[in-house]
Amino acid sequence: MITALDGPRLQLARKTVGAIRIVPDPTLPPRLLRLVDARGQAYIAKQHTRRDRYAQEAQAYPMWQQHLRGYTAQLIGRQDSTYTLLFTALPGVCAAAVQHDTAEEERAHHAAGLVLGMLHRATSIGNRSAIGSDLSQRLCSWTAKADQADLISTSERRWLLHSATRLADSYMDSSICHLDYQPRNWLVAAGRFWVCDFEHTRRDARVRDFARLEYRRWQAIPRLREAFFDGYGAQLTGVEQQLLELFGAIEAATAFVRGHEQDDVALRAHGRSVLARLK
After folding, report:
1. So what's the pLDDT on residue 54?
2. The pTM of the whole model exceeds 0.85
3. For the chain, what are the domain ranges?
4. Alpha-carbon dihedral 117, 121, 122, 128, rounded to 10 degrees
5. Which CATH architecture fits 8-89?
6. How do residues 213-271 score in pLDDT, each as one tens digit?
7. Rounded mean pLDDT of 132-158?
8. What confidence score (pLDDT) does residue 150 get?
């Protein structure tokens, strides 16, 4: 367990900005720590447990933040040996806490589409087959894990593998993708919007960045999808909608396995719901 009494996060903060104090914040996950320096400037210190996630987030800020200037925190310190990062703190509240089915929630999705569209357009590359092949292999891997844990039926396994074959034969454009783009990683306040948590960020199929929203948010309130793509600046084509359905197969298989590994009943139920919708 990562403790807040003394450790890499406090050490990095003191080295970077000087004397600091901890500000208790029960809304933050355990690996994040809110800090304030002697001048009242607030920071977030984050310690990763996985080197690959740390490396992706540490790389994302200097490489891609130029396309999201004003919509993200500033990375001001890092410590490679302990997988620790220090950011300026952002104002606002987590968009996941915004009351559902309200104009405020709709505005958050519109802003989210606007910001993601900026990143995608600045980093987009045309149709490629290699990404489809990589995603096909990933789906096959998740399917094998779900099958080994006896989480899916024979017919479900067959359908997931058929989806993997379709992915392998698909061409799709790529861009730098956030890959966990959903309200829990957005902050909103008085008409402002920010994005956080770039630990999954890498080049991937552009349409895949919509999958979490499609299968976790938009089905219940379709007008949020409309608000998002109005902000994004383009609607999905028929081919892109088909791709999004294939990415739903990855969403389902991942939810089965992660839900099993973490003993998360809700996550497993989510995987079952997505699969039932698509199969």
Report:
1. 97
2. yes
3. 8-89, 94-278
4. 130
5. 2-Layer Sandwich (3.30)
6. 999 999 889 999 999 999 999 999 999 999 999 999 999 999 999 999 999 999 999 99
7. 96
8. 97
Q: How many degrees, rounded to 5, is the angle at CA 75 between CA 227 and CA 44?
A: 85
Q: What percent of the chain has pLDDT over 90?
A: 90
Q: How does DSSP assign the chain, residue by residue?
A: ---SSSSHHHHHHHHHHSSEEE---TTS-TTEEEEEETTS-EEEEEE-SSHHHHHHHHHHHHHHGGGGTTSSPPEEEEEGGGTEEEEEPP-SEEGGGSPSSSHHHHHHHHHHHHHHHHHHHHH-EEEESHHHHHHHHHHHHHHHHHHHTT-S-HHHHHHHHHHHHHHHT--EEEEEE-S--SGGGEEEETTEEEE---TT-EEEEGGGGGHHHIIIIITT-HHHHHHHHHHHT-PPPHHHHHHHHHHHHHHHHHHHHHHHHTT-HHHHHHHHHHHHHH-
Instruction: Answer yes or no: CATH 3.10.180.10 is held by domain 94-278.
Output: no
Q: Which two tokens stand for residue 5?
A: 């009494």
Residue 61: how many other CB atoms lie within 10 Å = 20
- Tens of pLDDT, residues 95-131: 999 999 899 999 999 999 999 999 999 999 877 668 9
Integer Cα distance of 211 and 204 in angstroms: 12
